[in-house]
Protein backbone atom coordinates (compact mmCIF):
# COMPACT_ATOMS: atom_id res chain seq x y z
CA UNK A 1 0.00 0.00 0.00
CA UNK A 2 1.23 3.50 -0.64
CA UNK A 3 2.69 6.12 1.68
CA UNK A 4 0.83 9.44 1.39
CA UNK A 5 1.84 12.95 2.39
CA UNK A 6 -1.28 14.35 4.03
CA UNK A 7 -0.48 17.96 3.14
CA UNK A 8 -0.19 17.05 -0.55
CA UNK A 9 -3.53 15.24 -0.75
CA UNK A 10 -7.03 16.48 -1.54
CA UNK A 11 -9.80 15.88 0.98
CA UNK A 12 -11.67 13.41 -1.27
CA UNK A 13 -8.48 11.39 -1.55
CA UNK A 14 -8.27 11.18 2.25
CA UNK A 15 -12.00 10.41 2.52
CA UNK A 16 -11.55 7.46 0.17
CA UNK A 17 -8.79 5.76 2.20
CA UNK A 18 -9.88 2.63 4.07
CA UNK A 19 -9.83 4.05 7.63
CA UNK A 20 -9.36 0.71 9.36
CA UNK A 21 -6.19 0.09 7.34
CA UNK A 22 -4.82 3.63 7.58
CA UNK A 23 -2.17 4.78 10.05
CA UNK A 24 -1.13 8.40 10.54
CA UNK A 25 2.46 9.21 11.48
CA UNK A 26 3.36 12.51 13.16
CA UNK A 27 7.07 13.43 13.18
CA UNK A 28 8.02 15.61 16.16
CA UNK A 29 11.23 17.60 16.38
CA UNK A 30 12.38 21.03 17.46
CA UNK A 31 14.10 24.20 16.35
CA UNK A 32 17.09 23.97 18.63
CA UNK A 33 20.84 24.59 18.65
CA UNK A 34 22.73 21.46 17.58
CA UNK A 35 26.42 22.25 17.91
CA UNK A 36 28.19 24.66 15.59
CA UNK A 37 27.82 22.21 12.69
CA UNK A 38 24.20 20.99 12.44
CA UNK A 39 21.06 22.96 11.50
CA UNK A 40 18.55 24.12 14.09
CA UNK A 41 15.98 21.82 12.48
CA UNK A 42 18.06 18.67 13.09
CA UNK A 43 15.46 16.90 15.23
CA UNK A 44 12.69 17.52 12.69
CA UNK A 45 14.97 16.09 9.95
CA UNK A 46 15.61 12.98 12.08
CA UNK A 47 11.93 12.63 13.01
CA UNK A 48 10.89 12.79 9.36
CA UNK A 49 13.47 10.15 8.45
CA UNK A 50 12.15 7.90 11.23
CA UNK A 51 8.56 8.52 10.10
CA UNK A 52 9.41 7.67 6.50
CA UNK A 53 11.34 4.55 7.52
CA UNK A 54 8.40 3.35 9.63
CA UNK A 55 5.89 4.24 6.92
CA UNK A 56 7.78 2.29 4.27
CA UNK A 57 7.75 -0.81 6.46
CA UNK A 58 4.07 -0.49 7.39
CA UNK A 59 3.06 0.06 3.79
CA UNK A 60 4.67 -3.23 2.75
CA UNK A 61 2.55 -4.91 5.43
CA UNK A 62 -0.70 -3.75 3.85
CA UNK A 63 -1.33 -0.41 5.58
CA UNK A 64 -2.00 2.95 4.02
CA UNK A 65 0.25 5.43 5.81
CA UNK A 66 -0.45 9.14 6.09
CA UNK A 67 2.68 11.15 6.80
CA UNK A 68 1.79 14.35 8.64
CA UNK A 69 3.87 17.52 8.43
CA UNK A 70 6.43 17.62 11.25
CA UNK A 71 5.69 19.42 14.50
CA UNK A 72 8.87 21.47 14.73
CA UNK A 73 7.94 23.95 17.47
CA UNK A 74 8.48 22.35 20.85
CA UNK A 75 9.64 22.97 24.39
CA UNK A 76 13.43 23.20 24.21
CA UNK A 77 14.64 24.66 27.50
CA UNK A 78 18.06 22.97 27.29
CA UNK A 79 18.99 24.86 24.15
CA UNK A 80 17.08 28.05 24.88
CA UNK A 81 20.21 30.12 25.62
CA UNK A 82 21.58 29.55 22.10
CA UNK A 83 20.63 31.85 19.24
CA UNK A 84 17.79 30.63 17.06
CA UNK A 85 16.39 28.07 19.49
CA UNK A 86 12.61 28.27 19.81
CA UNK A 87 11.25 27.20 23.21
CA UNK A 88 7.46 26.90 23.28
CA UNK A 89 5.16 25.91 26.17
CA UNK A 90 4.92 22.19 26.88
CA UNK A 91 1.14 22.52 27.24
CA UNK A 92 0.99 23.73 23.63
CA UNK A 93 2.62 20.50 22.42
CA UNK A 94 0.22 18.38 24.44
CA UNK A 95 -2.77 20.31 23.12
CA UNK A 96 -1.65 20.20 19.49
CA UNK A 97 -0.99 16.46 19.54
CA UNK A 98 -4.32 15.81 21.26
CA UNK A 99 -6.04 17.94 18.62
CA UNK A 100 -4.34 16.06 15.80
CA UNK A 101 -5.52 12.74 17.24
CA UNK A 102 -9.07 14.05 17.75
CA UNK A 103 -9.31 15.44 14.21
CA UNK A 104 -8.01 12.31 12.56
CA UNK A 105 -10.32 10.13 14.65
CA UNK A 106 -13.28 12.25 13.53
CA UNK A 107 -12.37 11.20 9.97
CA UNK A 108 -12.16 7.57 11.01
CA UNK A 109 -8.36 7.37 11.24
CA UNK A 110 -7.78 6.09 14.76
CA UNK A 111 -4.14 5.05 14.85
CA UNK A 112 -1.56 7.83 15.19
CA UNK A 113 2.12 7.06 15.66
CA UNK A 114 4.52 9.69 16.98
CA UNK A 115 8.03 9.61 15.50
CA UNK A 116 9.93 11.74 18.01
CA UNK A 117 13.56 12.81 17.75
CA UNK A 118 13.61 15.65 20.31
CA UNK A 119 14.50 14.11 23.65
CA UNK A 120 14.47 17.17 25.90
CA UNK A 121 12.62 15.88 28.99
CA UNK A 122 10.07 18.72 28.71
CA UNK A 123 9.16 17.56 25.20
CA UNK A 124 9.13 13.85 26.02
CA UNK A 125 6.86 14.50 29.02
CA UNK A 126 4.53 16.65 26.90
CA UNK A 127 4.28 13.89 24.28
CA UNK A 128 3.73 11.20 26.91
CA UNK A 129 0.93 13.26 28.40
CA UNK A 130 -0.55 13.88 24.95
CA UNK A 131 -0.47 10.19 24.12
CA UNK A 132 -2.26 9.17 27.31
CA UNK A 133 -4.72 12.13 27.30
CA UNK A 134 -5.68 11.56 23.69
CA UNK A 135 -6.06 7.80 24.10
CA UNK A 136 -8.40 8.45 27.03
CA UNK A 137 -10.35 11.39 25.55
CA UNK A 138 -10.86 10.11 22.02
CA UNK A 139 -12.91 6.95 21.86
CA UNK A 140 -11.13 4.22 19.96
CA UNK A 141 -7.95 6.25 19.36
CA UNK A 142 -4.65 4.40 19.56
CA UNK A 143 -1.69 6.73 20.06
CA UNK A 144 1.63 4.97 19.64
CA UNK A 145 4.68 6.68 21.14
CA UNK A 146 7.84 4.59 21.13
CA UNK A 147 9.85 6.74 23.55
CA UNK A 148 13.48 6.24 22.49
CA UNK A 149 14.71 7.31 25.93
CA UNK A 150 13.23 4.11 27.38
CA UNK A 151 15.67 1.25 27.77
CA UNK A 152 13.69 -1.07 25.53
CA UNK A 153 14.17 1.08 22.44
CA UNK A 154 17.44 2.79 23.41
CA UNK A 155 19.01 -0.66 23.56
CA UNK A 156 18.56 -0.94 19.80
CA UNK A 157 20.41 2.32 19.13
CA UNK A 158 24.11 3.19 19.13
CA UNK A 159 26.48 3.14 22.11
CA UNK A 160 26.77 6.92 22.03
CA UNK A 161 22.99 7.33 22.15
CA UNK A 162 22.74 4.96 25.09
CA UNK A 163 25.55 6.74 26.93
CA UNK A 164 23.47 9.91 27.02
CA UNK A 165 26.04 11.91 25.03
CA UNK A 166 23.29 12.11 22.48
CA UNK A 167 22.91 15.70 21.38
CA UNK A 168 24.47 16.72 18.06
CA UNK A 169 27.15 14.05 18.49
CA UNK A 170 28.03 11.10 16.28
CA UNK A 171 24.49 9.69 16.38
CA UNK A 172 22.58 12.78 15.26
CA UNK A 173 25.34 14.07 12.97
CA UNK A 174 25.40 10.73 11.14
CA UNK A 175 21.67 10.88 10.48
CA UNK A 176 21.79 14.44 9.15
CA UNK A 177 24.79 13.48 6.98
CA UNK A 178 22.64 10.72 5.47
CA UNK A 179 19.51 12.85 5.09
CA UNK A 180 20.64 16.40 4.42
CA UNK A 181 24.42 16.52 3.83
CA UNK A 182 23.96 19.96 2.31
CA UNK A 183 23.03 21.31 5.76
CA UNK A 184 26.06 19.94 7.63
CA UNK A 185 29.10 22.18 8.14
CA UNK A 186 31.58 19.33 7.76
CA UNK A 187 34.61 21.57 8.30
CA UNK A 188 33.30 22.71 11.66
CA UNK A 189 32.21 19.14 12.47
CA UNK A 190 35.58 17.51 11.84
CA UNK A 191 37.31 20.07 14.08
CA UNK A 192 35.14 19.33 17.13
CA UNK A 193 36.71 17.55 20.08
CA UNK A 194 34.87 14.59 21.55
CA UNK A 195 32.71 15.57 24.51
CA UNK A 196 31.71 12.41 26.31
CA UNK A 197 29.56 14.17 28.93
CA UNK A 198 26.22 12.44 29.48
CA UNK A 199 23.06 14.50 29.25
CA UNK A 200 21.27 11.82 31.23
CA UNK A 201 23.69 12.30 34.14
CA UNK A 202 23.34 16.09 33.86
CA UNK A 203 19.56 15.81 34.01
CA UNK A 204 19.82 13.50 36.99
CA UNK A 205 22.04 16.11 38.68
CA UNK A 206 19.33 18.71 38.17
CA UNK A 207 20.91 20.62 35.26
CA UNK A 208 18.49 22.27 32.87
CA UNK A 209 20.67 23.66 30.07
CA UNK A 210 23.29 22.27 27.69
CA UNK A 211 25.84 24.74 29.04
CA UNK A 212 25.35 23.68 32.66
CA UNK A 213 25.21 20.04 31.56
CA UNK A 214 28.70 20.13 30.00
CA UNK A 215 27.86 21.14 26.43
CA UNK A 216 28.93 24.80 26.14
CA UNK A 217 28.79 24.63 22.33
CA UNK A 218 25.42 22.82 22.31
CA UNK A 219 26.86 19.40 21.49
CA UNK A 220 27.83 16.25 23.35
CA UNK A 221 29.39 13.08 22.01
CA UNK A 222 31.75 12.73 19.06
CA UNK A 223 30.45 14.53 15.99
CA UNK A 224 33.77 14.21 14.15
CA UNK A 225 33.24 10.43 13.97
CA UNK A 226 29.90 10.72 12.16
CA UNK A 227 29.36 9.01 8.80
CA UNK A 228 26.44 8.94 6.38
CA UNK A 229 26.61 5.12 6.33
CA UNK A 230 26.05 4.96 10.06
CA UNK A 231 23.23 7.47 9.67
CA UNK A 232 21.52 5.27 7.10
CA UNK A 233 21.75 2.25 9.39
CA UNK A 234 20.30 4.23 12.32
CA UNK A 235 17.38 5.44 10.19
CA UNK A 236 16.69 1.84 9.30
CA UNK A 237 16.54 0.91 12.99
CA UNK A 238 14.35 3.92 13.83
CA UNK A 239 11.90 2.90 11.11
CA UNK A 240 11.85 -0.67 12.40
CA UNK A 241 11.16 0.55 15.95
CA UNK A 242 8.24 2.70 14.80
CA UNK A 243 6.68 -0.05 12.69
CA UNK A 244 7.11 -2.58 15.49
CA UNK A 245 5.52 -0.28 18.07
CA UNK A 246 2.53 0.32 15.78
CA UNK A 247 1.99 -3.36 15.06
CA UNK A 248 2.20 -4.18 18.76
CA UNK A 249 -0.27 -1.45 19.70
CA UNK A 250 -2.74 -2.59 17.07
CA UNK A 251 -2.47 -6.17 18.26
CA UNK A 252 -2.96 -5.15 21.91
CA UNK A 253 -4.65 -1.74 22.15
CA UNK A 254 -4.02 -0.02 25.45
CA UNK A 255 -0.56 -1.53 25.85
CA UNK A 256 2.10 1.08 26.51
CA UNK A 257 5.20 1.16 24.35
ZN1 LIG B 1 18.64 16.50 18.55
Overall pLDDT: 94
Number of strands: 5
User: What is the structural class?
Assistant: alpha/beta
- State the share of residues found in helices, binned by percent: 40-55%
Which distinct ligands sit in these coordinates?
A: zinc ion
Which regions are unreliable across 5 or more consecutive residues at pLDDT < 50?
none
Please state the oligomeric state of the protein chains shown. Answer: single chain
How much of the sequence lies in strands comes to 5-15%
Distance between the termini: 25 Å
Question: Tell me, what's the shape?
Answer: globular
Work out the radius of gyration.
18 Å
Read across the widest sheet, the strand sequence of neighbours is: 1-3-2-4-5
Number of helices: 10
**Secondary-structure element series:** EHEHEHEHEHHHHHH
Largest sheet properties: 5 strands, parallel
What does this structure look like?
With 257 residues, the protein is of the alpha/beta class. Helices cover 44% and strands 9% of the residues. The protein is built from 10 helices and 5 strands. It has a 5-stranded parallel beta sheet, sandwiched between helices. Helix 2 crosses helix 10, helix 3 packs parallel to helix 4 and helix 7 (170-179) packs across helix 10 (228-251). The radius of gyration is 18 Å and the shape is globular. The protein starts with a strand and ends in a 6-residue tail after the last helix. The structure holds zinc ion (ZN). The site of zinc ion has 5 residues, from helix 2.
Spell out the blueprint of helices and strands:
Blueprint: E1 3-5, H1 11-15, E2 22-28, H2 42-60, E3 64-67, H3 90-106, E4 111-116, H4 121-137, E5 142-144, H5 151-154, H6 159-163, H7 170-179, H8 186-190, H9 199-204, H10 228-251
Parallel strand pairs: 1-3, 2-3, 2-4, 4-5
Helix pairs in contact: 2-7, 2-10, 3-4, 7-10
